[in-house]
């Protein structure tokens, strides 16, 4: 079978990834179904709305016709083989599906469908161990060494994502996030002579370890039952309690400081933090954790829209803003009117409506004519 002149192995070798897709390209390839929904057209007829994924990213797909023959043949987390046309919709690639079928798992290499850290896992594992070896506090060093020596924790930590979708949402993402925090801890703690770098190091290693059991990543990234019921903060407190009990003479007050680092690392109550940071190392841990997660979210959001046109990404819900695609901005002069209209479109998408009310109850104009018309109407009202 050929896809645009390229040979595609009918076995497990996937030669065409989402990052390879180009607008107006007809494709035939395998994808993982992340989301599946049956919606209605304006005519009342149903259509399929999907989010498809592989290790390079994800994209939306629509099947407008003939869905009655396929809608019951597959579900979320299944693999499907699709044939369709790639088009740009609202500046993002989307596949219009002409044909699809559920793929047998024997056709699939699972490693091709999970996003993966670009860094070497064993290299990061070595970096983590070196950071622990450099800890001077003997109690903290013993605790951290016992964590890394735990075979189950080590195995999970080399695979686990750091989140379902917000940041470092890929295989090896948690290990990448932790090693990034360890580097930031060295850079920042050294700038303040009153900060205990060993304590920040311990917090960086511990703070998200509950995600080893909170998140499930067998097919798509989701939550385990334990994760749904308890959350990663409660889970890691249990891990800490078990490891400290195994050490025997771990100082109770030092354990309390570690518990506070874990409980306060989200920084604010509205972000799910049971406590606010109450000593310097806790505040520093929160700040570098927040910095690392937000920068990674920005990177992923911008990279995810590399096929899209324009200088701006879609609205990023976690960061509550649209993001500038800097390289596109620097390489093109840009069209101010087009960017203005794109911004209005993003606001509309965020509200889930075709227009938003502004002060006075007037609908937000969708074009220049509408803007001028509203100005004229307001002027007439003032005369009255």
Please describe what this structure looks like:
The termini are far apart. It is built from 13 helices and 9 strands. The model is unreliable at 1-12, 348-370 and 380-384 (pLDDT under 50). The radius of gyration is 25 Å and the shape is elongated. Strand 8 and strand 9 (222-223) form a beta hairpin. The longest helix is centred in the C-terminal third of the chain and has 25 residues, at 280-304. Helix 5 (197-206) crosses helix 9 and helix 9 runs parallel beside helix 10 (280-304). The protein is 42% helix and 16% strand. It has a 5-stranded mixed beta barrel with strand order 3-4-5-7-6. With 384 residues, it is an alpha+beta fold.
Short description:
With 384 residues, this protein is an alpha+beta fold.
Feature tags:
two-stranded antiparallel sheet, disordered N terminus, five-stranded mixed beta barrel, 42% helix, 384 residues, alpha+beta
């Amino acid at each position: 079978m050929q896809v645009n002149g390229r040979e595609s192995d009918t076995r497990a070798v996937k030669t065409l990834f989402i990052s390879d897709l180009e607008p107006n390209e007809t494709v035939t390839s395998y994808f993982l179904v992340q989301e599946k929904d049956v919606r209605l057209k304006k005519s009342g007829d149903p259509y399929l709305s999907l989010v498809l994924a592989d290790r390079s990213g994800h994209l939306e797909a629509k099947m407008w016709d003939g869905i009655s023959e396929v809608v019951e043949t597959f579900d979320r987390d299944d693999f499907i083989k699709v044939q369709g046309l790639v088009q740009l919709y609202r500046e993002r690639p989307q596949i219009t599906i002409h044909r699809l079928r559920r793929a047998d798992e024997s056709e699939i290499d699972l490693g091709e469908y999970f996003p993966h850290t670009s860094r070497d896992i064993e290299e990061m594992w070595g970096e983590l161990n070196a950071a622990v070896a450099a800890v001077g506090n003997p109690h903290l060093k013993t605790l951290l060494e016992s964590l890394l020596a735990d075979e189950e924790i080590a195995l999970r930590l080399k695979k686990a994502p750091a989140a379902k979708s917000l940041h470092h949402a890929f295989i090896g993402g948690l290990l990448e996030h932790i090693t990034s925090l360890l580097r930031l801890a060295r850079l920042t703690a050294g700038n303040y002579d009153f900060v205990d770098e060993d304590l920040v190091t311990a917090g960086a290693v511990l703070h998200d370890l509950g995600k080893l059991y909170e998140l499930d990543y067998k097919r798509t990234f989701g939550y385990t039952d334990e994760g749904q019921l308890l959350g990663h903060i409660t889970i890691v407190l249990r891990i800490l309690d078990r490891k400290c009990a195994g050490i025997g003479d771990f100082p109770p007050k030092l354990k309390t400081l570690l518990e506070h680092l874990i409980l306060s690392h989200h920084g604010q109550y509205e972000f799910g933090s049971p406590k606010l940071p109450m000593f310097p190392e806790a505040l520093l841990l929160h700040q570098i954790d927040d910095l690392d997660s937000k920068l990674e979210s920005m990177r992923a959001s911008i990279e995810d829209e590399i096929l899209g046109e324009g200088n701006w990404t879609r609205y990023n819900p976690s960061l509550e803003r649209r993001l500038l695609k800097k390289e596109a901005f620097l390489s093109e002069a840009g069209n101010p009117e087009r960017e203005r209209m794109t911004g209005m479109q993003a606001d509309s998408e965020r509200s889930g409506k075709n227009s938003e009310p502004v002060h006075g109850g007037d609908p937000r104009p969708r074009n220049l004519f509408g803007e001028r018309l509203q100005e004229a109407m307001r002027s007439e009202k003032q005369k009255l």
